[in-house]
Specification:
Layout: H1 3-14, H2 22-28, H3 40-50, H4 55-62, H5 66-79, H6 90-103
Length: 104
């Protein structure tokens, strides 16, 4: 990333926006049959995550169980190759591409 891109990203985040990696977005929404393919329900869950919804709120909006939401989120993390980490928040890393594409 060059300095101008980093500066622009920092400004967007400071203004309340988000920054997404286009590569992550393209992996998530890759054609069916690839490792990055997200099904429609996973896309709904991911969209609600990008809006800042908790698992409980996602359950309420989609009228599904907490276990179902956790399963969808686990599938999303797997498709994005987001392993548990103490240095990064997987939920934030998963939604960054969605939020960035909305700001373009």
């Amino acid at each position: 990333m060059d300095v101008d891109e980093l500066t622009d990203a920092l400004r967007r985040v400071a203004a309340g926006g988000t920054v997404l990696d286009p590569q992550v977005v393209s992996e998530l929404f890759a054609p069916a049959g690839t490792a990055g393919h997200a099904d429609p329900r996973e896309r709904e869950v991911l969209g609600l995550m990008a809006q800042g919804c908790t698992n409980t709120e996602i359950c309420r909006r989609l009228v599904v169980s907490e276990g179902a939401v956790e399963k969808h989120i686990g599938n999303i993390f797997g498709k994005l190759a987001l392993a548990p980490s103490e240095s990064a928040h997987r939920r934030v890393m998963a939604v960054l591409p969605i939020c960035a594409s909305e700001n373009e």
